[in-house]
């Protein structure tokens, strides 16, 4: 079941985030992720709209949205490959007409996942906190048409 997160979910969300971050980002020193936990708890999660995937009373994944920015999508490593990330991303797409995100370039699995679900690379940069190269990606929902100004009409 996907539902909006409550303050009581914070510890479980942080556990998912830390476990998944350590696994997916092994090119970043583990100490970095451990040091970021309090910032996540005090600053990032309260600023976001957070949705969790709960199965059998256990939070297995979550998304965090800040306006049209997909700030986080994480699934516990032992729960991956079960459609949780896909379901969470589908929820984000239902909530927003367009989405943008940043992902580490070396996180091939995540880059492939987002491309598979309609995201395109829009820019490249460097994450200021880690110094790692990152990709900016964007999604525009189907049926959403761009409006072009006709010149000379």
TrEMBL record:
CDD domains associated with the record: NAT_SF (cd04301)
Keyword terms: Acyltransferase, Transferase
InterPro entries, alphabetized: Acyl_CoA_acyltransferase (IPR016181), GNAT_dom (IPR000182)
Family annotation (Pfam families): Acetyltransf_7
Keyword DNA-binding appears in the UniProt entry: no
Any one GO MF annotation of this record: acyltransferase activity
Entry-linked PANTHER family: PEPTIDYL-LYSINE N-ACETYLTRANSFERASE YJAB
Stated name of the protein: N-acetyltransferase
Organism classification: Bacteria, Pseudomonadati, Pseudomonadota, Gammaproteobacteria, Aeromonadales
